[in-house]
Every structure is written in C-alpha cells, then in structure tokens.
Amino acid sequence: MAKDNKQLKCVILTMRRENVILPNSLVAEIISVKDVDATGDHPDWYLGQMKWRGEDIPLLSFEGAGGDAVSGINLNTQAVVLYAVGKGDKVAEHPYIGLVM
User: Fold this and answer.
1) Cβ atoms within 10 A of the Cβ of 2, count?
2) Nearest by Cα to 79 from 42, 28, 44
3) Is the CB of residue 91 less than 8 Å from the CB of residue 85?
4) Which end of the chain has fewer surrounding CB within 10 Å, N or C?
5) Which pLDDT tens digit goes with each residue over 27-55?
6) Domains of the chain (ranges, CATH numbers)
7) Degrees (nearest 5) of the Cα angle 7, 29, 84?
8) Residue 69 carries which DSSP code?
C-alpha cells in the first residue's frame, strides 16, 4: 500500500532582521540588487523598480511593510525574486516581485 506523503518543500530566507519561510515553488531566483529606480511618491516599504532578466519588477522591504525602519541598498544587498500569486490584471502586469534580504 502506498503512503500518502503530503510534504511541502520550503526555504527559510533571512530578511534583514526576520526569517521567512516560503514554499520553494515561489522562489524564482536570489540575486544581487543593482540599478534600482526609486522615482515617484511611494510608501517606505516600496523601494522602487529593479531590472531582472529584462523586466522591471517591484522591490519591496518585508521589514518596512511591518513598520520597521528601511535600510539603504548597497553593493552587498541581495533580493529574492518571487513569482507573484493571485488573480487578475495586476498579476499579469507584474508576474514577479523582489524582496530585500
């Protein structure tokens, strides 16, 4: 008789101050952050748009969204690129998001 194993493979990501557990299937790539366009009037947790594989993707701060101070981006800053999840035109328009790690 076959066992019904229901497992979800996850990755633990260390953001600037917190750890976040995400399913592997959400993670597209982990990259170094460069060339962030931070123009416009946005909340503190929205760091701007960055290029990834020829696309502009939004770069967000997990800690900033939680009310903590947002640290600046430097040459050592890394981000995780995630597949956006949801329905509707917004996901089709922005199929990826970046989170600062």
Assistant:
1) 4
2) 28
3) yes
4) N
5) 999 999 988 888 778 888 899 999 999 98
6) 25-100 (2.40.50.180)
7) 75
8) P
50, 37 contact by CB (below 8 A): yes
What's the rounded Cα separation, in Å, for the pair 82 and 90?
A: 15
d(C-alpha 98, C-alpha 100), whole Å: 7
Tokens 């690129």, residue?
81
Of 56, 55, 57, 58, nearest to 47 (Cα)? Answer: 58
What's the pTM?
Answer: 0.81
> Is there a contact between 84 and 95 (Cβ–Cβ < 8 Å)?
yes
Cα distance between residue 38 and residue 47, in whole Å:
6
Q: What is the DSSP letter of 74?
A: -
Taking alpha carbons only, the member of 63, 56, 16, 64 closest to residue 39 is 56
Q: What tokens does 89 get?
A: 């035109």
